[in-house]
Amino acid sequence: MLYNALIRTHHITSRKKVAALKRAADAHKCHVLLRSGGCPGIMYVEGSDKSSVDEWVNVVRKLRYKDFQLVTRPGAVEGEGVDGEKSRSPDAGVDVGLAEVDSVREFGHRMEERGVWKWWRKGMGYQP
């Protein structure tokens, strides 16, 4: 089973903090996607167990990002797909590491690829 969480911040610009996030992703065996470089800063984390996702979120808290908001608490991945089928198997595993994108549009595209686009849009407040 996979677990994920979504964090929104004012911005993500510090390369030292991004390096710390990358080390934490590797240490806790999580996949992390960042929208960095401007406002808003968005962080998506996904892991194979809830404790690793929780631990990664705690690393982010300790970095004291401006306007830190845990918009979606760590929980089981709610996959979505055509006709309600999950687009990805929950047992598929996690591609460990950190990736960055420059735009919210690209972030949304990556969420769609991971099968959590509607979940992400709801967490960001784009849809009720």
Task: Walk me through this protein's architecture.
By secondary structure, the chain is an alpha+beta fold. The protein has a single domain, classed as 2-Layer Sandwich (Alpha-Beta Plaits), CATH 3.30.70. The chain is built from 4 helices and 5 strands, in the order E-H-E-E-H-E-E-H-H. Strand 2 (30-35) and strand 3 (41-47) form a beta hairpin. The radius of gyration is 14 Å and the shape is globular. InterPro entries: RWDD2A-B_C.
Quick structural overview:
With 128 residues, this protein is an alpha+beta fold. Helix content is 35%, strand content 26%. α3 packs across α4.
Whole-number tally of structural domains: 1
- H and E string: EHEEHEEHH
Q: Proportion of β residues?
A: 25-35%
Give the C-level CATH assignment: Alpha Beta
> Roughly how many Å is the radius of gyration?
14 Å
In CATH, the topology is named: Alpha-Beta Plaits
Instruction: Indicate the structural class.
Output: alpha+beta
Overall average pLDDT? 90
* Termini separation: 26 Å
InterPro entries: RWDD2A-B_C
